[in-house]
Prior knowledge:
CATH topology of the largest domain: Rossmann fold
CATH superfamily of the largest domain: Vaccinia Virus protein VP39
Low-confidence stretches: 1-30
Helix content: 40-55%
Distance between the termini: 70 Å
Order of helices and strands: HHHHEEHEEHEHHEE
Amino acid sequence: MENFMNIYTVTVAVAIATVLIWTFKGLIYRKLYTRYSAWILNRLTVSLDTAYVSHKKRLFQIVEDYKNRQNGDLKILELGVGAAPNLKYVPDNSEITLLDPNPHFTKHAEENIVDARKRLKSVEWMQGVAEDIPSQSNTFDIVFCTLVLCSVVDVKKCLSEIHRVLKPGGMFVFVEHVAAEKNTWKRFVQTFMDPVHYVLYDKCSVIRDTETYIRASSLRDFQIENFHSTLYYWITPSIAGIATK
């Protein structure tokens, strides 16, 4: 009887907790989870940047070459800026807009933004999502993101918005971890880890076939490199590249 009462008490407690979490999930996400996400992803910023540094440098050299061909300074948009570790790669005298849905990243990005303002024309922070970019069409020379398309809600809508805000001839620059090939051991591990990543890292999916989405978009002239990063085993498959409008 005592065991039954213990089980009953635990069951009721779990049921009540579940109902409360479900009822107030919006408030919990806004007040607590967004703070946690900014904190944990900021903690990972250095290791993530280091894992992709060579590919970022190569891509931003292409951006620099594009600037020289344009014979003028660039207007740039970064999606999912996080703690803003990519600002150091941006060409001098650029005007850059930083877009992120999580307002709690601003304090983590502050130091990088202050440093960037010493050599860039302007640095503007905007809160928003990549599926609904709060900018006019044909605005930016460059749109770039790193490790962002893994966590957007609607990849197709995001890519459509990127195409919309790019100027004709403008470039989309990206570095992303992606799904491993199907029917491989790594893909099996990814499938197992995917729910964990979704919860711990703000909707991050490790089984998203991002390259297929990019190639199916309205962008063109794809230059995409497949490689393996130095991150955890289940998120090493990666792509880096550019596409143009």
